[in-house]
Specification:
Elements lengths: L1 E5 L2 E2 L3 E9 L7 E7 L10 E2 L2 E6 L2 E8 L6 E9 L4 E10 L1
Parallel strand pairs: 2-9
Antiparallel strand pairs: 1-3, 3-7, 4-5, 4-8, 6-7, 8-9
Length: 96
């Protein structure tokens, strides 16, 4: 379901506008989460819920605010649709 994200890197204490490409996204019924891949990472700075601006069947446009205290390193992106479909893309995004 997930193809790629651009840009693939963001920095703490910034808001990053992004475009996520893929297939089978459902306008009005798709959610996106950024999840830290650091072992033992928990808490609100390690799960980010982006603001979604638009969803088309092959593209999601949004922005994600990365807190100053966000864990640096690789993050995965999880996309879920209202009909129960989901996709996880490990190593898709880096917080530097």
């Amino acid at each position: 379901m997930i193809g790629s994200i651009s840009p693939a890197t963001g920095y703490g204490n910034t808001t990053v506008a992004f475009t996520l490409t893929g297939n089978y996204f459902e306008p009005g019924g798709t959610t996106v989460k950024f999840l830290s891949q650091t072992t033992g990472a928990t808490g609100s700075v390690n799960v980010l819920n982006p603001a979604i601006l638009s969803i088309a069947p092959t593209q999601i446009v949004g922005s994600v605010t990365i807190p100053y205290a966000a864990t640096m390193g690789l993050w995965e992106i999880k996309v879920a649709t209202v009909d129960g479909g989901s996709s996880l893309d490990a190593n898709a995004f880096r917080v530097a």
